[in-house]
Amino acid sequence: MPDSRKYRTVLTGAAGGIGSEIARLLAQRSETLILVGRRPAVLEALRRELGVDRTHVVEGDLRDAQTLESLKSRIESLGGINLLINNAGINEFREFETQQDSHIRGMIEVNLLAPMLLTKALLPHLKQQDQAQIVNIGSILGDIGYPGYAAYCASKAGLRGFSQALRRELHDTSVKVRYFAPRATTTDFNESAVVEMNHALGTACDTPQQVARELMKFLDSSAWERTLGLKESVSVRINRLFPGIVDGALGSQLPTIRKYLPKSIHQA
């Protein structure tokens, strides 16, 4: 059995559906757990639920330097960390040419740039540990480009590339970099149109609790990467080797996908 209190953890996006479920399971395994997010009331309620003695909250936007400084100060006061989980993310289902420029920029900043800069800021703390790891929470859409998600796919593909490159760069250190890719998940993260589309297409969906449990299994494994779902894992491999096959499959779904795409055109 794994040591139930071996982690000293920073978890971003802790106030979200998946994040809060991850926090509940990590609290059972962590000496200290720092919850990071932008919804202070939700974070404080979660902290009280999990135990105020070992759970801490840093509220703020990770794109802000002040939030990073507050987090680093909290880590120093608690004696360091050995696990960083970059879970924060935003999404929008929309035809690319109709997306506001600010929304495209926001997805790249939150989903890719923010975890990169946070990782850079916390690497000195992680390197002080005998063993440490960074787990970046991506998406199957970081591997399979999907209509209606061009900007989101770009951000998650970038996160996977960053994870792989940094893993190799840190090969001779005590820090391991890993990438965990959920498939479709039933959270408020998805718009109602996405839920309806997934149902119409027969897309398999996991609950946040299922994703959190699979992440715990991933933490106990030695794999550097994990994609949830057998069918989805096979699709990822096919897409890497024979992308034309996936082009055809998604092309046949395009009329259904377009049915659920928002129709309004935005200019920024």
Quick structural gist:
The chain has 268 residues and is of the alpha/beta class. It has nine helices and seven strands; from the N terminus they run βαβαβαβαβαβααβαα. A seven-stranded parallel β-sheet has the order 3-2-1-4-5-6-7, sandwiched between helices.
Question: Ranges with pLDDT <50 over ≥5 residues?
Answer: none
Portion of residues in helices? 40-55%
Our measurement of the CA-to-CA distance between the termini, rounded to an integer number of angstroms, reads 53 Å
Shape summary = globular
How many distinct helices?
Answer: 9
Strand order of the largest sheet: 3-2-1-4-5-6-7
Order of helices and strands: EHEHEHEHEHEHHEHH
Helical/strand content category: alpha/beta
Average pLDDT reading: 94
Q: DSSP strand (E) fraction?
A: 5-15%
Major sheet summary line: 7 strands, parallel
How many beta-strand elements? 7
Radius of gyration: 19 Å
